[in-house]
């Protein structure tokens, strides 16, 4: 099937399960899937049940689409995501976000676990994305344009919507959440970056590095969706500390800061 046919097939299947049309879409990265338990009047659909949908294979990413309400808002939430390093194309990685946009979401909240490149960061730092560097070598918009979603050449100069960021920052401060702001670099993975690559990313202006989010952000903006993104710095990137990197460290740190991250997500839903 073409990507347009896969999107249409997924849309039709989800419409058969629920008539809820979300205002806001959430992508819940490593360790945040439990936030879905806060949704009410929920319909949960495993990725594997949705025709044409990619299926998550990574620890900490359950792989389900939930539609319901949260804090008075109609929400579509992804309990986990898929990544290009699992063997999926950027177009496939972005398909769930495109589905949420097609269902009606006008604001997207993207979360991830990331490695700290900025030497002022520490594990547990929450970073609000103000921009990104796509170092994955591919773009989810390559191939035939989906004209029903957006234009052939969409503008990305405000990909992480400035107005929403400016609303969120004082609310986070009032809630006692220390929120940094920075540039996220996407690396294809699944191997972690080398120390030389991290030095390169720092020279290029990156503050954090990870293996997701960018295809979703590009696809969302193409579809006219406002985007907010936040990274949990779960480890310092390669070469900064004298220790090897591991996925277990990522999951452990995400669990440790879950309460603060959850409160931040609530604020993002309120303003989205």
Structural write-up:
With 272 residues, this protein is α/β, with parallel strands linked by helices. The chain has one domain (3-271): Rossmann fold. The protein is 31% helix and 25% strand. The protein contains seven helices and nine strands, in the order H-E-E-E-E-H-E-E-H-E-H-E-H-E-H-H. It has helices at 3-17, 90-103, 162-174, 195-204, 214-222, 247-256, 258-271; strands spanning 24-28, 40-46, 64-70, 73-79, 107-116, 126-134, 179-186, 208-210, 226-236. It has a five-stranded mixed barrel, surrounded by four helices. Helix 1 crosses helix 2, helix 2 crosses helix 5 (214-222) and helix 3 (162-174) crosses helix 7. The mean pLDDT is 93.
Give descriptors for this structure.
272 residues, alpha/beta, Rossmann fold, five-stranded mixed beta barrel, 7 helices, 9 strands, 31% helix
Write the layout of secondary structure elements.
Layout: H1 3-17, E1 24-28, E2 40-46, E3 64-70, E4 73-79, H2 90-103, E5 107-116, E6 126-134, H3 162-174, E7 179-186, H4 195-204, E8 208-210, H5 214-222, E9 226-236, H6 247-256, H7 258-271
Parallel strand pairs: 1-4, 1-5, 5-9, 6-7, 7-8
Antiparallel strand pairs: 2-3, 3-4, 5-8, 6-9
Helix pairs in contact: 1-2, 2-5, 3-7
């Amino acid at each position: 099937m073409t990507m347009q046919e896969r999107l249409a097939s997924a849309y039709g299947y989800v419409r058969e399960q629920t008539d809820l049309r979300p205002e806001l879409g959430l992508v819940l990265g490593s360790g945040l899937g439990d936030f879905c338990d806060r949704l009410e009047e929920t319909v949960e659909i495993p990725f594997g049940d949705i025709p044409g949908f990619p299926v998550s294979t990574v620890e900490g990413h359950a792989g389900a689409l939930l539609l319901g309400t949260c804090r008075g808002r109609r929400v579509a939430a992804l309990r986990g995501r898929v990544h290009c390093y699992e063997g999926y194309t950027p177009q496939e990685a972005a398909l769930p976000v495109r589905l949420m946009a097609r269902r009606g979401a006008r604001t997207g909240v993207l979360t991830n676990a990331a490695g700290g490149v900025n030497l002022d960061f520490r594990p547990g730092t929450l970073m609000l994305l103000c921009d990104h560097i796509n170092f994955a070598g591919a773009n989810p918009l390559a191939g035939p344009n989906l004209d029903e979603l957006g234009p052939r050449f969409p503008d990305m100069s405000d990909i992480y919507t400035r107005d929403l960021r400016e609303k969120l920052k004082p609310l986070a401060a009032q809630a006692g959440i220390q929120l940094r702001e920075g540039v996220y670099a996407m690396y294809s993975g699944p191997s972690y970056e080398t120390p030389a690559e991290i030095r390169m990313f720092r020279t290029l202006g990156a503050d954090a590095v990870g293996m997701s989010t960018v295809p979703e952000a590009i696809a969302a903006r193409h579809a006219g969706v406002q985007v907010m993104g936040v990274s949990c710095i779960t480890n310092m990137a390669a070469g900064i500390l004298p220790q090897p990197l591991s996925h277990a460290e990522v999951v452990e740190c995400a669990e440790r800061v879950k309460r603060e991250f959850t409160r931040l997500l609530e604020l993002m839903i309120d303003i989205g």
